Amino acid sequence: MTSPIHAAARAAFLAQLKELGAAAVIPTATHKIRNDDSHYAFRPTSDFWYLTGFDEPDACLVLLPAEDRGRPARSILFLRERDKEREIWDGRRLGVERAPKTLGIDEARDVGKLWSDLPTLLAGIERIVWRLGDDAERDRRMTETFSLLRARARGPVAPPVALVDPGPTLHELRVRKSAAELEHMRRAAQLTADAHRDLMAFVEPGRNERETQAFLDHRYRSEGSTGAAYGHICAGGANACILHYVENDMELIDGDLILVDSGAEWNYYAGDVTRTFPVNGRFTDDQRALYRVVLDAELAAIAAVKPGATFDEVHTAALHVIVDGLIQLGILDGERDALIADGAHRRFFMHKTSHYLGLDVHDQGSYFTGGRPRPLEPGMVLTVEPGIYVDPEDEEVEARWRGIGIRIEDDVLVTEDGHEVLTGSAPKEPEEVEEACRGAVPVP
User: For residue 377, is pLDDT > 90?
Assistant: First the structure.
């Protein structure tokens, strides 16, 4: 379980904590009830996984920075003790004794001692990195600990002065991916791209959206993935005009398009791809015309990705192509800049073009620095995903366009001299898409 990703992350974070004069308390998730006595599948919180590589619930990592004249930096993991009876019912546990060697941390303790041990561990620490708002009960316990530390402070023992959000420190480390992290992201990207290509051959009129979801779930898990990185969007016909459509339960109709937004997760690193293709394998002339506008917008936006560019510039590159295309097709009437200034495009393209990608699908990281759009840097990974969605009830638009929703999305790494499209093998040129739709149906 020990990985250079997690050891390097801890070392870099501890160096930041030393500069900040802070300790960090990073809990993972607990099992959540789905209904009655059934639980949701467990996933560790991304910050915790990044620093530990440990995927059991009910654990917490405490990081104490090195002192100028005294103790070295320390990593202390609080986790569940071995319990043979519970392991028979609920699964194996690493346990306190094996954790240090297995995970490369300095010390392990029973998680039942977390809140009693924290006041001693954090004595004299002025700042505590803790993310508020994730769990009300844990926030309450941390507030009590903070108050206790303040009450105990005497003489040279400084009281704590602040709970510090992990955004400016830990989350900034996560923004730029290491070479080892990029190996996982490339695996997630390739598996995602391959699954989308094969899904094009699988889909045909009469299948149900739920079958496409099942196809993707099976493909991801059977290839060794930790599962889907987020809830699949498998939207046939006008369902594609609902941006976060998740019902995935309607029949796929001959002549419609299907929009599939889905990504595999590899070691908890996310892929995130959208492809839109014809259910029967052939674009109509109108579908192809609108699809071409979205694809050209995506290609223009990808071309804008490079060090020093901004998310706004990537979005603007896509937006200009989309508005020009909508004007050319007669869906919008007017001059591009005036239409954009008036927000007329938002009827058809209502979201931004990009977001960070990593351990979270919408990964951590700031989009502005000093009130200005943040420049892209090598090692950042972002999505590029323009779209056009024509409301099926929009009577101001010709009937032939209504109910068409198209989005095309790829995962793009910022490199030293430009960019690398991690998911480029998923077909997206219209001819490539139609060819993939004619391909042999993969055997499960």
Answer: yes
Per residue, what are the HEC states of 66-118?
CCCCCCCCEEEEEECCCCHHHHHHHCCCCCCCCHHHHHCCCEEEEHHHHHHHH
In the structure, what pLDDT confidence band is assigned to residue 155 with cuts at 50, 70 and 90?
Answer: low
The residues pairing with 182 across neighbouring beta strands, listed in sequence order, are none
Handedness of CA 90, 95, 101, 105 (dihedral sign): positive
- At 300-312, the pLDDT tens digits run 999 999 999 999 9
pLDDT in tens, 218-262: 999 999 999 999 999 999 999 999 999 999 999 999 999 999 999
Confidence of residue 158 (pLDDT cuts 50, 70, 90): confident
Token pair recorded at residue 17 = 């904590």
The Cα–Cα gap between 355 and 386 comes to: 12
How far lies 7's CA from each of 11, 62, 119, 209, 214, in Å?
A: 6, 14, 26, 42, 36
Beta bridge partner(s), residue 414: 419
296: Cβ contacts below 8 Å, ≥ 6 apart: 321, 325
Identify the CA nearest to 8 among candidates 178, 249, 194. 178
Packed helices 179-202 and 430-437: angle between N→C axes, nearest 10 degrees: 60
What are the C-alpha distances in Å from 333 to residues 51, 64, 295, 296, 344? Answer: 52, 61, 21, 20, 10
**Active site (catalytic) residues:** 37, 244, 261, 272, 351, 355, 362, 385, 389, 407, 409
Query: Could you give the 3-state DSSP secondary structure of residue 257?
Result: strand
Is the confidence at residue 321, as pLDDT, over 70? Answer: yes
Q: With 60 as the cut, is the pLDDT of residue 72 above it?
A: yes
Residue 442 has pLDDT above 80, yes or no: no
Look up residue 19 and give its two tokens: 């500069």
Kindly report the pTM of this predicted structure.
0.95
First to last CA, the chain: 30
**Tokens 């090195």, located at residue:** 66
Nearest to 276 by CA among 297, 292, 299: 292
Cα separation, 144 vs 171, whole angstroms: 25
